[in-house]
Amino acid sequence: MKISLYQKLAFSLFIIFSLICTLVLSWSQQLDHISQNQAEQKLHLNLAEHLVQDNPLLQQGVYDHQALENLFHTLMLLGPAFEFYFVDPSGEILTYSAKPGKVKRKRINLSPVLQLIEHAENMPIYGDDPRNLNKLKIFSAAPVYSHEDQDGIKNRGKLQGYLYVIIGGEIYDTVFSRIKSNDTLLITASWLFAALIFLFIILLLLFKYFTNPINKLAKEISQIQAANFDLSKVQLSQWPKYQSNEVHLLGNSLNVIVRLIHQQINLLEQNDSQRRELLTHLSHDLRTPLASLQGYLEILNHQNTKLDEQQQQEYLTITLNNCKQLKHLIDQIFELAHLESGRVSVNNEMFNLGELIYDIVAKFTLKAQKANVKLTIKPTVCDFNTLCDIAKLERVLSNLIENALRHTPENGEIIINVFAKNSKLVIQVSDTGTGIKAEEINYIFDARYRASNAVGHKKQHGGLGLAISKRLLQILNSDIKVHSEFGKGTLFEFSIRQAA
Fold first, then answer.
1. How many domains, the chain?
2. Is 441 exposed, middle or buried (0-12, 13-18, 19+ CB in 10 A)?
3. Domain coverage including residue 128
4. Which of 136, 272, 300, 410 has the smallest C-beta neighbourhood within 10 Å, fewest atoms?
5. What is the pTM (predicted TM-score) of this model?
6. For residue 393, is it within any domain?
């Protein structure tokens, strides 16, 4: 059986509260008993002394023990709350009035008696109960001396013993315990039980109030788990932002964590969808040149096919171009996968940016001349030093220039512009080409996204160049921006660190 936190707290509270009430009741009864004994002992402190002084049998000394026993019997009839004993100086009980077998002790300890006679401040003082071997009671005591006449003057003689008076004797205890059990104890128990129930209910309500947020949090966690962290199926509670309430802090932290997990799940699903789409596109791009390659090779390999030398050369040229396209696409796939793996190291070094740009432009000069496109570097004297990974920066610039050549028509121009700004070197690659539609700009850096201006070039590139460039710049702690106007051209811009 599962027990909730509230039930555990309530059960623990009941046990602890019951023990505390029991201890308090026991302590209060003990204190009441001590207070009562102290009051009665103080009230009857001189009882034994007055009896010794006022009674002839004791005033003159004890000589007739039978008469003293009768006196004790008479006094007990008049005061049933008292028991009277006469003990000798060693503590042996000599005279008392009781039925045979009632008195269990033959002697008492005189130390409490002497303490009461000599130092009566620290009351209550308990002495041996002659009628019970294991019980102590409050008492009154006084010494009894023999008196001698010398020349008509009475002098105190030898110590004969002590008058030992038990306050609250056996009869008193019996009657008092019956009354107490039938009246006071019942009332006290009733009030105590009522107070216990009332306080217990109050504490249960308080526990319910304090544990409600925990129960609410537990239910919310269960709902979130059942919904697989899909926030569209679960409404998160708004927890007050109290710095002193740990449950509310936990609830707010849980909301932050759940939202983060939800975002991560959506991102993973989005990435998974993009990867599936990428694989679909790549399989298509791989299948097309492979099918063409296979077809031309089968024609060239067919024994009954009669081809002249020019046709064979043409077929071989097409086959070689398909092979190059396959290699270029596969290289891009591996390069992008390597960049996405997160295991790419950066090797920064100081070099002249102008020299690198002129070297890169030189690689594309022949291709630009064939396309009748002008390549321009601004400023012409591009003397800037930078601290960067030269290989990765060269790859980015090559991709951007190649992309610009692909989309720039004849008599167009591609400009590589460099200038310093806020301790950074800003590099811009602009063209006068076809441009990009405004609604497509946000997607051009996605792997395998092909803008509408790429129509007619599907066989010349794999569509991964801009995605690779963006990832390379992220590794270099930079970002790429694009500004384009459809039909007029495009400008790509990024910045790198300038060396002093």
1. 2
2. middle
3. 44-168
4. 410
5. 0.46
6. yes
